[in-house]
Amino acid sequence: MIRKCLFPAAGYGTRFLPATKAMPKEVMPIVNKPLIEYGVEEAMAAGMNNIGIITGRGKRAIEDHFDTSYELEHQISGTSKESMLDGIRHIINNCCFSYTRQIEMKGLGHAILTGEALIGREPFGVVLADDLCEGEGDPVLAQMAKLYEKHRCSIVAIEEVPMEETNKYGVIAGNEIEEDVFMITNMVEKPDPKDAPSNLAIIGRYILTPDIFDIIRETPPGKGGEIQITDALMEQAKRNMVLAYRFKGRRFDCGSVEGFVEATNYFYEKYKA
Fold it and tell me: What is the largest CA-CA distance in the chain?
């Protein structure tokens, strides 16, 4: 069983300026919960209660959110508002949080490598909180954890996107070995549509085996001068096997203003129901 999940959360959130000048994008609320809390709930549902978060300067609000606020607890104790903290109390009481800082922004691969001290030598999940997912049946990470128990290799979540949008994603090509499961044969970071190997785009959910750390260490900077996790995964696919899983559910790109508003409207309707 996978016990640990890593949350890279050191980015600047520039697409949401000026809102993110003093507030981490990960704590921006979708209705009444910060974006990252949805991701932690998803990790918990997959049995991953050891949460490692990669932070940076100006991200203390994330740590404060997953901690007890004694003054607030005292102020609302015994009132009708006390129940509004039930969800976050459950997370705090059932998860172990650890943090480390990414000193330089050198790409997602580098962020994951920064978390090696929090993970150790065991398989782990990775959640990018920007991608808010709602699974059909099981949450997306739980779907992937079940697949890991069967195949015991690294897995990336994918979805079909319009061909003209492939330059926004890492894109895979592979052989479908069972329904919605592909053995990866090629992986390209943000290809031009004319060069894309398919329209199957990687989203912000991964399950990785610990040998990925050594591979990332050997991976030279790629597109944009950053250490790309897609480059490391492609090397891992050459050595072993890496799977892509077309998940069952819906994803909201909350790294964009349009996706953030779409997610807010969707979850507000659920909140009202």
Answer: 61
Nearest alpha carbon to residue 266 among 127, 99, 70, 134: 134
Cβ density class 81-113: b for 16+ within 10 Å, e for less: eeeeeeebeebeeebebebbebeeebbbbbbbb
Q: Which residues contact 21 (CB under 8 A, 6 or more apart)?
A: none
The CATH number of residue 257's host domain is 3.90.550.10
The residues that bridge with 8 in the sheet, in sequence order, are 54
Q: ω into residue 210 within 30 of 0, thus cis?
A: no
pTM, 2 dp:
0.93
Q: Comparing C-alpha atoms, which of 184, 187, 192, 189 is closest to residue 222?
A: 189
**Strand positions, DSSP E, the chain:** 4-8, 29-30, 33-34, 50-55, 96-101, 124-127, 131-135, 154-160, 170-178, 181-189, 200-208, 242-246, 249-253
Using CA atoms, how far apart are residues 6 and 9, in angstroms rounded to an integer? Answer: 9
Pairing of strands 170-178, 50-55: unpaired
Range of the domain at 57: 4-272
**Domain count of the fold of the chain:** 1
**With contact defined as beta carbons under 8 Å apart, do 132 and 251 qualify?**
yes
45, 141 contact by CB (below 8 A): yes
The whole-angstrom separation of Cα 261 and Cα 256 is 9
Measured CA distances, 259 to 93, 132, 232 (Å) = 31, 9, 28
Residue 130 has pLDDT above 90, yes or no: yes
Q: What is the pLDDT of residues 81-119, one digit of tens each?
A: 888 888 999 999 999 999 999 988 888 999 999 999 999
pLDDT at res. 190: 87
